[in-house]
Amino acid sequence: MNTEAVVDIRDLTVTFTGGRGAVNAVNGVNLQVKRGEVVALLGESGSGKSVTLRSLLRLHPEKRTRISGGLTVLGQDVMALKGAALTGFRGKTVSMIFQEPLLALDPVYAVGQQISEAIRKHEPKVSREDAEKRALEALKRVRIPSPERRLKAFPHEMSGGMRQRAMIALALACNPQVLLADEPTTALDATVQIQILLLLRELQRELGLSVILVTHDIGVAVEVADRIAVMYAGRIVETGPVRDVIRNPSHPYTRGLLAFRAHGAMKGARLDAIPGAPPDLAKLPPGCAFAPRCKQADEGCGSTQPEPVQLGLEHWARCLKLAQAAE
Hints:
It is a single chain. The radius of gyration is 21 Å and the shape is globular. By secondary structure, the chain is of the alpha/beta class. It has 13 helices and 12 strands. Helix 7 (160-172) runs parallel beside helix 8 (190-207). The protein has helices at residues 49-55, 83-92, 101-104, 111-122, 128-141, 147-150, 160-172, 190-207, 218-224, 242-247, 252-265, 299-303, 320-326, and strands at 5-18, 21-34, 38-42, 65-73, 76-77, 94-97, 178-182, 210-215, 227-232, 235-241, 308-310, 316-318. The protein folds into 2 domains: 5-93 and 178-266, Rossmann fold; 103-175, no CATH class. It has an 8-stranded mixed β-sheet, with helices on both faces. It has a 4-stranded antiparallel β-sheet with strand order 2-1-4-5, with helices on one face.
């Protein structure tokens, strides 16, 4: 694997303004993705995963969003892109699989037409006939049954699993180098989830894609990712290679996620849930945001913002207890 960072996020902060005032959805995120690497952003709903992902495509409403920090993809400054350059960047350099394909796909156009139009948008010299041939190849690539028939099908005429495959085909139609996947298996049954995950991993290896996968399921992260970044209240609280994080979970939140899944997998076992609820992002505490839910927290945790502590070559976590132990 090439160690060059294809995606480089530096001190990303995303703040939304509205009736409640400023909401700090992402707070100083640093994340690098190497060529051919799959990184899973893991955490509860509202932790800032999807906001981070959408920032890479500048999909947030500009009037109500303040973004600071650095966003670089393949050496391009994402925040400096405008007009045609930004349009060309979306789908051609970086593409995205959205959480709900029924909402992401246009209901009034056939799936094949949507894929072929995306190809012609980025490659105007491609004829309509050639674009349709490429759309058919894209559907074959994602293993859709009877692809010739599905080419003319509308999204509502397809099952959830087939719509998600069509969404993946659309995302890969223009041969992007970076793929963003936002909860790609949500609302699918367990068998279809496994099929989609295996397909994504196979395509990623075949095409050499760099992938950022958003998920709340640590089992999905373990099966698909090379590296995990655990997010809580807009910050990455632990990150490292999958093996290191699973074998040595060092942040209390990561341990809670693992314990919850382990207990849930045992028949008849009582769920070991993390107590409390995620914090209000409009009123974040001055110290560690997880402190009110942490069994190990003391007074210092509620007033001091923890710095990252290195635990291995690429493994680190933000926890005041870890910092104190390292002194």
